[in-house]
Specification:
- The chain is of the alpha+beta class.
- It has a domain of about 80 residues: Bacterial OB-fold (OB fold (Dihydrolipoamide Acetyltransferase, E2P), Beta Barrel).
- It contains 2 helices and 5 strands.
- A 5-stranded mixed β-barrel has the order 1-2-3-5-4.
- The radius of gyration is 18 Å and the shape is globular.
- About 15% of the residues are buried.
- About 5% of the residues have low confidence.
């Protein structure tokens, strides 16, 4: 009985790990994206939710990048684990979803919660 329970627990844990790192549904979500421009986003208040479409144009190191959609540029932060093996170049169009972070003595940035490659 103990072996059976241990095996069931192991299978459940494996499924959770796979769901966390193995990808997920790609397709229509039924949720409006409400995309905006970088220029519009920079005029919002701190902690505002943003959705932007554009390109990462360079790496600034330490999980920070410069993002542009042609209207303006903004620093974004993407945690290493959020890349999930995806490769992006300056020619790759992506949509980012995150939160605007305005600090008094630091440049405005966007903390990216998730992104999709177009």
């Amino acid at each position: 009985m103990k072996k059976l329970l241990l095996m069931l627990f192991s299978l459940c844990f494996a499924n959770v790990s796979q769901a966390q790192f193995g990808g997920g549904f790609e397709g229509p979500s039924g949720v409006a994206k409400n995309l905006m421009t970088v220029k519009q986003a920079l005029n919002l208040r701190d902690n505002s939710r943003v959705a932007l479409k554009g390109h990462i144009i360079n790496s600034l190191g330490d999980e920070k990048y410069t993002f542009s959609d042609g209207t303006a540029e903004v620093m974004i932060e993407i945690d290493d684990e959020d890349w999930a093996g995806r490769k992006v170049t300056p020619d790759t169009t992506i949509e980012i979803y995150g939160e605007l972070d305005k600090e008094m003595f630091e440049p405005t940035k966007i903390d990216v919660d998730s992104f999709t490659v177009q």
